[in-house]
Amino acid sequence: MSSRKFFAKALATAAPAIAGALIFTQGSTAADRSPTPVVVEEIVAKVNGQIITRGELDKQKLEVEAQFRQQGLIGKALDDATKGRMADGLRDQIDQLLLVQKGKELGVNVDADITRRMAQLQSEQKIADPDKFHQFIQEQTGETFEDFKQQMADQMMTQRVIQEEVYRNITIPKADIDKYYNEHKSEFVRQEMVSLREILISTGNGSPDAVAAAEKKARGLVDRARKGDAKFTDLARQYSDAPTAAADGELGAFKKGELAKEIDDVVFKNAKGYVTDPIRRPAGFEIYRIEEHYAAGQASEDEVADEINSKLMEPKAGPKVRDYLTQLRQNAFLEIKPGYTDSAAAPGKDTTWQDALAIKPETTTKEAVAAHAHRKFLHVIPYGHVKPPKDEAPAPPPAVTPVPQTPVAVPDSK
Fold first, then answer.
1. To which H or E segment does residue 200 belong?
2. Which of 19, 34, 58, 158 is least buried, going by the fewest C-beta atoms within 10 A?
3. Which numeric CATH code is attached to 192-295?
4. What is the domain partition of the chain in residue ranges?
5. Minimal CA–CA distance to 204: which of 119, 322, 289?
6. Which stretches of the chain drop beneath a pLDDT of 70?
7. For 254-267, what is each residue's pLDDT tens digit?
8. Closest Cα partner for 313 from 178, 171, 164, 188?
9. Do domains 3-167+314-372 and 192-295 have the same CATH topology?
10. C-alpha span between 8 and 329 (Å, rounded)
């Protein structure tokens, strides 16, 4: 996986400030200031004490425009598409802040997941020196290492909040699943397939000592999984260095020939529930658990019930996510500067910009804005695209179910 692809997928604290205030550059005295103040940044919205700046909206616009350019849009088509997306620009920024704040309120902790992601990336890039790895991050993303980690943490947190607060509460009736299956049986005729979970134990810098330690650790995990001392999903979340750790090791479904031969030869010869010996791979030692082994032919409804559940849940989830975000707005302290619009404003909610003269001058320094300006827009609102979590407590990440004709690809990061 290329580093740029990882960064593209993988993707906060702020001081109170006056939106739209005139912020002086530091270092000047009353005697040498010009009569006209220098505007460092324009603050356009306050969300529970945190701010959204015009600079952030401008940066978001550049990112959106770059995405459309990659899709081949140019000229008026590019301008129209960018303008259309940015009509919801402030809405999306507010959504993101509200979800991150809610995650903190709920006590969501993604530190272990972030540590695994960083270790995996560092292993893939074969950069043993931490300082050089931090420099590599900055060169690739334009962000400091700490800012990049924070962006990833915010993204994970928002996804967890939506899974816990929205998807957990959506139920698809059994009758609807039966009906869909009976009307779409042709979708579920497939080749022999296996659905897998994984645990990756990284070999770090690849030194003999690191390889030996990784293999010993991997064999210990295999023993624990086979003896039933711990669930494979728990072991994956706690110990795996793969990005899939955040999804309990869920890897997806594969047909013969889609996996490396040494993996194919093991998993297609064994039944559901089998845990493989550690298999040496470029990034480390891989352990696989066979979640399902599907025979060729017509899949039964039981085999595809989770997949159908996900399909039917998607159109229901989008409106419910928006309802939830409206609720967060109703309960938030939210002020928006005149001239800017939240396209998802809560009905009846007063977001009038208040007189900010009482706020202390130091809250309008360049440093106050700079401390906030590292937050990057993450495009995290998953209207209909986040899989529902399994019915366990606490709610785990979304379940990934095998797709009949087109198996789920191994995730690059996420």
1. strand 193-202
2. 34
3. 3.10.50.40
4. 3-167+314-372, 192-295
5. 119
6. 1-40, 355-414
7. 998 899 999 999 99
8. 171
9. no
10. 29
Q: pLDDT, tens digit, for every residue of 125-153?
A: 777 788 888 999 999 888 899 988 888 88
User: Residue 129 has what pLDDT?
Assistant: 82
Summarised one tens digit per residue, pLDDT across range 378-400 is 444 433 334 444 444 444 433 33
* DSSP class per residue in 248-289: TTEEEEEETTSS-HHHHHHHTTS-TT-BPPPEEETTEEEEEE
Q: Give dist(CA 52, CA 75) in Å, integer.
A: 29
Give the model's pLDDT for residue 246. 75
Buried b (16+ CB within 10 A) or exposed e, 209-225: ebbeebbebbeebbebb
CATH architecture of structural domain 3-167+314-372 = Orthogonal Bundle (1.10)
Q: Across the chain, which distance is largest between two alpha carbons, in Å?
A: 84
What's the DSSP call for residue 374? T
pLDDT for residue 234: 93
Q: How many CA atoms lie within 13 A of 376 on its CB side?
A: 21
d(CA 99, CA 325): 8
What single string gives the DSSP state of each residue in 201-251? EE-TT--HHHHHHHHHHHHHHHHHHHHTSS-HHHHHHHH--SGGGGGTTEE
**Rounded distance between C-alpha atoms, residue 313 and residue 399, angstroms:** 12
Q: Which two tokens stand for residue 6?
A: 């990882």
Q: Are the C-beta atoms of residues 60 and 89 closer than 8 Å to each other?
A: yes
Give the closest residue to 244 by CA, choosing from 9, 4, 75: 9
3-state secondary structure of 124: helix
Report which of 192, 194, 196, 195 is spatially closest to residue 298, judged by C-alpha positions. 192
Q: Can the peptide bond before residue 338 be classed as cis, meaning omega within 30 degrees of 0?
A: no
Q: How is residue 21 written in tokens?
A: 């205030």
Phi, psi torsion values for 281, nearest 5 degrees? -130, 170
- Helix locations, 268-345, DSSP H: 301-330
For residue 391, give the amino acid letter.
D
Neighbours of 252 (CB within 10 A): 23
pLDDT at 368: 53
DSSP-derived letter for residue 167 is G
For 288, the token pair is 């696989």
Output phi, psi for 44, to 5 deg. Answer: -110, -15
